[in-house]
Amino acid sequence: MSLLTEVSDLVKSNLNRTVVAFSILSVFTAFGLSGCGNTVTNNSSSNTSSMNMNMSGTESLPAVKFSTQPKGDLKAGENVRILVFVSQNSQAVNDADMVDFEIWKNGAPMSAHQMFSAKKTGNGQYSIIHMFPTQGTYYVMYHVTARGSHVMEPQKVIVKS
Amino acid sequence: MTGQAPNSAGTNVNGKTVTMNALTGKIRLVTFFYTHCPDICPLTAYQLEQVQNQLVQLRTFGTKVAIVSIDMDPEHDSLSTIRLWSRHFHANYSGWYFLRANLKQTNQILSAWGVQKQSVPGTLYLSHTVKTVLVDQNGNIRKTYNTANLNPSEIVSDVNGIIARSNW
Known about the structure:
The structure holds two protein chains of two kinds.
Chain A: H1 3-12, H2 14-31, E1 33-34, E2 39-40, E3 63-69, E4 74-75, E5 79-88, E6 91-92, E7 98-105, E8 114-117, E9 119-122, E10 125-131, E11 136-146, E12 149-160
Parallel strand pairs in A: 4-12
Antiparallel strand pairs in A: 1-2, 3-5, 5-6, 5-10, 7-8, 7-11, 9-10, 11-12
Chain B: E1 9-11, E2 17-19, E3 27-33, H1 40-57, E4 65-71, H2 79-87, E5 96-99, H3 103-112, E6 117-119, E7 126-129, E8 131-135, E9 141-146, H4 152-166
Parallel strand pairs in B: 3-4, 4-5
Antiparallel strand pairs in B: 1-2, 3-8, 6-7, 8-9
Helix pairs in contact in B: 1-4
């Protein structure tokens, strides 16, 4: 099954997407919107929606470079660091609002997708430590919200026994 | 983004053409979406539903304030899918407009509003600018919100402030 077909299947149900969105919202609401550079809760009395960015004009979308440590094929049952390097106009972005990784095994239903919030672990770098439980083909989609943009892209990851 | 709001036009979910100029006299919240969007757009719509509900209680929704959601992906979003998507957020169509234009017009509209989009290879997703723009009754851009952290109470407060000042 191609990724496009899979994603197409995933997005066919508007209701499912909304449920997923509300699930994400619930997580954000439960834990607060913990961005890596900002902490903003939806119930916050402080007015923060427009404070942390320059919305004037059109800014280029942030560039995101994905990688894993170790690189290449990964092993099931072992910890791996999944990371992105975020930059804009060749400058590291250290004030991302949110960086999340959505992980699912090839063919898994939307309900089996897992979301993990990344932490800032270096200059422009955001990462998580993750263990893939079994061998197979997985997808890791980063969701980077920074500088007034949302950037996402799925990456194929091979996990061996 | 400052100055006058662009006079964008699109087809509403009821099939009628709506322009920003035709909404002059109302405060407008302008935002951008596509229905295949997995996270930011439905979250934004959910937050705007909260704004809608608060303004309905204040009896200003539709009469003094409108929400304009502009579709970013007309290649994959038909009016019927937009209508279906919008219903999940209990949109009150008397004051919440979901506008779709053709691809060329959409690209012009997005450029005018300073919104970038980029297809995510192999998917139906878009990477895109996330912002919601507050436009006053005279078409002046008053504020731009980071949609990633949209705060309905802040928006309603800003809207109420504009309404209050217009009564001075």
